[in-house]
Structures are given as C-alpha cells and as structure tokens.
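Input sequence (143 aa), recorded before submission:
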Amino acid sequence: MVKMMTAQRKTVGAMLGKNATVLPLSEYRGGARRTLYFTRPELNQLLGLYSRNVIRGVWRDYAIDHRDGQALFSIFRHTHESALYTIVKSAAGSGGEPQFTVLSGRQRVRVGRTLPEVLGYFRSKLALVFVLDFGKRAVGGLA
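Predicted structure, token format:
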C-alpha cells in the first residue's frame, strides 16, 4: 500500500501495491533559493577592470556563473586554464548587503562589503624602476 501524505503529514489517500510512503519534496528542500546577479554598475566595474588587463596582455578570458546565493566573475590568463581570480558576490546576510570576495585559486585574498573595496586589490602597486641614463649611471625612481 502507498500512503500519500500532505505537508502536515496527514494521509490523504492510499493505493494498493508495495509498501512505500510518498512525501512532498518541498518539505526537504532548503527553502526558497534565489539566484543572485551582478548589477549593471557592478558589471561595468568588472568589465572595465577586465578590459584594462586585456589591453596590458595579462588576462585573456572571463566567465560569469551563478550558484545558489552567489554570482561569480572568473578571470583567466589562458582559455583552457583554471581561473586566475574569481570575484564572488554572496547573498546578503543579516545586514541586507551582499558580500564581495576576491579569490586566487581557493585562497581568499580580499573580502569586503562593496565591489570597489575588493577591486582595490587589483590596483597597480608602486614598483621601483631603474632607468639607465645613457650608460652613465643607473637612476632609481618610482613608477
């Protein structure tokens, strides 16, 4: 006999056959899952960063993915490699605002509440550059 049960676990019918209980899947799913997306201004910032690094010859490909409660922007150096960096927008916690994370492989390198805050990780850092002064001497300076 097969018992059909409602969400309140009341039997609503029975059928002849082997013993089995049919339960609604909605009782066992983890609630309403919503897909999270990047907003247009966020995409403009991400694609701006991406295009600047493509021009420099550093990055070559990107991918946008969606998981339960997350939007991901992955950056690749070469098309067939794993992601060099992944920028993750996670669903809002108790505060209501999403959280942004920059991953390098599986390592978290920056976490913040705003996208510009985490994209600061990609700002070029000052580097010491030596310039030869027509063979006379090496001159140091910041670039």
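Checked by second reader. The chain is about 15% helix and 40% strand.
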